[in-house]
Request: fold
Amino acid sequence: MTVHHTAVVMGSNTGAPRRVRSYQNYHQGRGWPDVAYHYLIDANGNIYEGRPVFARGDTFTEYDPTGHFLVCCDGHFDQQGIPTAQLGSLANVLAWASLRFGAGPSTIAGHRDYAATTCPGFHLANLLADRTLQSMVEQRMAAGGVSLGMLCGQAGLDRIAEIEAGRL
Reply:
């Protein structure tokens, strides 16, 4: 399981849905079939589905992400800290994936562990290096795991409207 950041300084979280769409458009403009990651997480902890989990992700670096579950946090964590809500949702997604795919928390790494990059940024990489993130995932797994719900159709559109209005 590999953690990434967008390397874009977050502004207001009301722009998160627009940024996620822009990342998708940029990646598709490179010829990729979708956004590079399986899940993306905004500053307020809202989780966006990217590529289907059975599909291979992509990367702007030389490592081969075949077999990697890719999660990306919106932000530039060389320049800013990771918000508590975003970190909590990252731990939730990784706990869910750990149980779903049988990949223990010890397999969680940053993009920089596979390629010459600073991704997922200094502040997030430190939470991997000191095992804070892995411990959070282990705690969620020990408590019975995490389920991720999907919002589609009007419910999904309503959620996006709430995020854009600053209510989520």
The longest helix spans residues 84-101. The chain has one domain: 2-164.
